[in-house]
Hints:
The complex is a heterodimer.
Chain A: E1 5-7, E2 10-14, E3 19-24, E4 31-37, E5 43-50, E6 55-58, E7 61-66, E8 71-76, E9 85-92, E10 100-102, E11 106-111
Parallel strand pairs in A: 2-11
Antiparallel strand pairs in A: 1-3, 3-8, 4-5, 4-9, 6-7, 7-8, 9-10, 9-11
Chain B: E1 4-6, E2 10-13, E3 19-25, E4 31-38, E5 42-51, E6 54-57, E7 64-70, E8 73-78, E9 87-94, E10 105-106, E11 110-114
Amino acid sequence: SQQGEEDPQALSIQEGENATMNCSYKTSINNLQWYRQNSGRGLVHLILIRSNEREKHSGRLRVTLDTSKKSSSLLITASRAADTASYFCARNLEGSNYQLIWGAGTKLIIKP
Amino acid sequence: DVKVTQSSRYLVKRTGEKVFLECVQDMDHENMFWYRQDPGLGLRLIYFSYDVKMKEKGDIPEGYSVSREKKERFSLILESASTNQTSMYLCASNAPGGSTNEKLFFGSGTQLSVL
């Protein structure tokens, strides 16, 4: 399968703790993106990281990319109840200029 | 902010009905996409369009067609709805000039149930 693989499938932590989600893939990429989806809603873009970048930050979000291991991580620091959502990674399909390959997502629950 | 609007949040249709899902974006984006989302499967691309009247098949086009008569509007058509088309349908668009597989803006989704 060319799908990205995310782990864990589900993660439940206490408010204030850090949450780490991982995404692995099998072929070369130009970029990798992370999205958030609140229950029953559309997806919201969080961060795009390019293959020549190793780390990007946006507020409490930190994304790393290790192209040698073909993996990326999304870290949410000091989690809040509002961070409860599903998180998806998406990467471009090698040889295609439009296809994104999506993982099945990590469901994150922040307990108050 | 970019707004992508899908006409219905919830739809219930009967097997064999013709179903239209409408999507409108307000930021002059050239690229528009239709995905379906099923639990445990992530998002799968049905069709995308890179210009008015232009379309490309995605991974799962069977049973679907699309229409793009105006730049801002991209319609997904289920010619004869079947129960296996019960799903969440997501429309997306992205900015002109860049690669089509960069940042996507999504609508809120349409949960379609086919009975």
